[in-house]
Amino acid sequence: MTDDPRRHAPATQRNRDAILAVLRRHLLASGLLLEIASGTGEHALHFAAALPGITVQPSDPDAGARASIDAHAGAAGLANIRPALALDVTGAWPIDRADALLCCNMIHIAPWEATPALVAGAARVLPPGAPLLLYGPFLRDGRHTAPSNAAFDESLRARDPRWGVRDLDEVIALAADFDVEAIEAMPANNLTAVFRRR
């Protein structure tokens, strides 16, 4: 038995470099990147290591996830990753300013109300010109982009009927304070939607 709180998500190893490539294209060379729903912390660690000019602020509402994030960061010894914040997008945010915001694989594993809360929170903390990046599976024009995404959506809704793959057009409709900068195709039939704060 181990007391190591670090968690591991196999999908992180598969998608982290593709997400990093998108970050390199859309982030400034320096500034504070707020990551929402950081989960295991492996993404935050990878991005902090690869982008030394960026300070990464991970967050998660789950105490076990925050312990994992902080343990990964402590083991790596990186100076540009902050201790994880307790942040639930539907509540009060314990941060009032960031230069970019990244959220991977949250909005389909949460009730719908988390999505407008996320977008509204991003509008509050991001200054004009700052990017909001959302990564995960999405419907396009009301349709799944692959049979595997349809099966995934069905499995999510079986676990919790409030969950499910969201229609990207509905997410874009929430983002009145943002312009859509890019919709980038990603591995495993995922997308990264890049918004820019007006």
Automatic annotation (TrEMBL):
Pfam families: DUF938. It comes from the Bacteria. PANTHER family: UPF0585 PROTEIN CG18661 (PTHR20974). This is DUF938 domain-containing protein.
